Every structure is written in C-alpha cells, then in structure tokens.
Amino acid sequence: MHRKIIYIINPISGTRSKQRVQNIIAKETAKAGIDFQFMPSVASGDYSYIEQIIIEEGITDVVIVGGDGTVSQVVDSLMHLPIQFGVIPCGSGNGLAFSAGIPKTPHKALDVIFNNQAHRVDGFRVNKHFACMLCGIGFDAQVAHDFAKANQRGLTTYIKKIFTNFFSAKAYSFKIKLKNKSFSTSAYFISIANSNQFGNNFTIAPKASLSDGLLDVVIVTDQPKFTLLYNTIKQVGGLNSLQAKESIDANKGVIYFQTDELTIENIDNAPVHIDGDPAETQYKLHVVIQPDCFKLLVGKKSI
C-alpha cells in the first residue's frame, strides 16, 4: 500500500526550532518516496476538519510533531478513521514517545515512521477528556499549570517549577472508589498512568504498559517532606511493588495498584493536568481505560 502522511506541527511545543525540524522531515520523507503534506496544530484541539482530507486523499498516516498534549488532541479527533498515528517528539516531556520506543532526534524518529511497525495501544478518559499517557492530580498538576504560564519552555524550566513548588506543596484530601473497594486518603499527588513515563525518561509507574488494558495508579500520601522524597525515588526506581486492589493499605507512603476504572472525589479541588496540559479542576473524576483504541507507529523494542 502506498503511504500518504500528514505531518501536524505544533509551533510552540518544546524548545527546538520547528522550521529546522520541518526541513528535515521534508527532505527525509521525499527521499523515502512517501507523499506528504504539513498542517499546523490548532489551539482548539479539534482536528475533525482534517477528516474529509484524510478520506478524499487516501491519507494512511497522521504524524504529530509536538508533545503529549497535541498527540492526545489529534488522536481523540481522528482515531475512528482507518489510519496510523506517529510521533516526532518535540514537547517538553514526550512521555508517550519514549514509552513507545520513539527516539527524540528527528532523524531517528523518522526511521520509526518509515519502518511502519504499528501496534494498537490503549488510551483512557478522564470524564469526557481523552488522554494517551498520564493524568496527574495535585503537586505535579500544579507544576504543569505553572509551567504553562512560563515564558520559556524546556526541561530546565520544568525542573525549576518542581523545586519552586516542592517547599510549598501541601497534601489534598481524596476519596478513591474502585469496583469492589473505596478508601480515603490525604496525598501530595495522584498519577494515573497509561504509560510508564512522567516524561524525559522519568518513570513514575514502572509496571505500566501502553497495551495491557489497565491503568497504573500511583498515590503519594501525606508524609514528611524528606520521607516524601525517599518514597518517590523508590517508586521511580521500581522498588515499590504493585498492590492488589483488595488489600490496599491507605496508610502506606506510596499506594501503587492497577485497575481499568476508578472514580476520584477531589475534595480539596486539587489542580489537574492531562498529558501535561492544565485541565479544569472538577470535584469528581471518572477515569476509565479505552483499550486498543488507536494504532501507533512504535520502535522495535517497545511493545
């Protein structure tokens, strides 16, 4: 089958020059003998207007040149179509790309696109909002909100926002409802992960998989700041075991379990992010996996 690609470029994600990246993409895609065109990302996040172009022109692949937030918006709009999605990571975290074995350099990411190995992967919904990778509530969401307001992008700015927020961070009250269990907890943050990435190869949910039909839930509970650091490092290092949902201990420093669905009552209105983008704070968050919902071009050793 002859491939036709639409590249959607987010001009403001990350710090890399998009004109340079676009030039590389154009040169290498032409060299590979694949028809292609460029389109800019849109602020609304609604890409349904591309649907007619995809159908009429026989587009086979939509490749997002941007970060996780743009990927989620494009996939949500177009995943009902018989197309493959690719990523050339240009965001600040690029968690989905790293989970899928997609390198950060444009030339190597294009190798993944041209290799044409696509697998069906999961997404999930937070109320009605689609997510490819991660939803965070609490501390990391506050970092995401502050980062979105910053004049500069990139990893350095993100790290600065982490340190700025750490000393003033507080715990929030939550009630967690699963199918056969409910519990209350006070926590600095809750991460609901479809991938094993926070971004930048920072692993918050080591057992997470893009294609297992499950969400990994990590709750870092209220504790002294020194212990908080210690337990978070243990979690990132893969030293905390998964807990069975039936035997969750709400008093542990880190609660780590898997589920296909949960409801969170956000009692103190903790901030929320979805795939790194600030989201509306809501009292009740219903989170449910959407298994095998889109085809993603992945690296050889990822899935």
What does this structure look like?
- The protein is of the alpha+beta class.
- It has helices at residues 18-31, 51-57, 68-78, 95-99, 106-115, 139-149, 155-166, 225-236, and strands at 4-9, 35-40, 61-66, 84-89, 118-126, 129-131, 134-138, 172-177, 182-193, 215-221, 254-259, 261-266, 272-274, 277-279, 284-297.
- α1 packs parallel to α5 and α6 packs across α7.
- The protein is elongated, with a radius of gyration of 19 Å.
- The mean pLDDT is 88.
In short:
This protein has 303 residues and is α+β, with helices and mostly antiparallel strands. It has helices at 18-31, 51-57, 68-78, 95-99, 106-115, 139-149, 155-166, 225-236, and strands at residues 4-9, 35-40, 61-66, 84-89, 118-126, 129-131, 134-138, 172-177, 182-193, 215-221, 254-259, 261-266, 272-274, 277-279, 284-297.
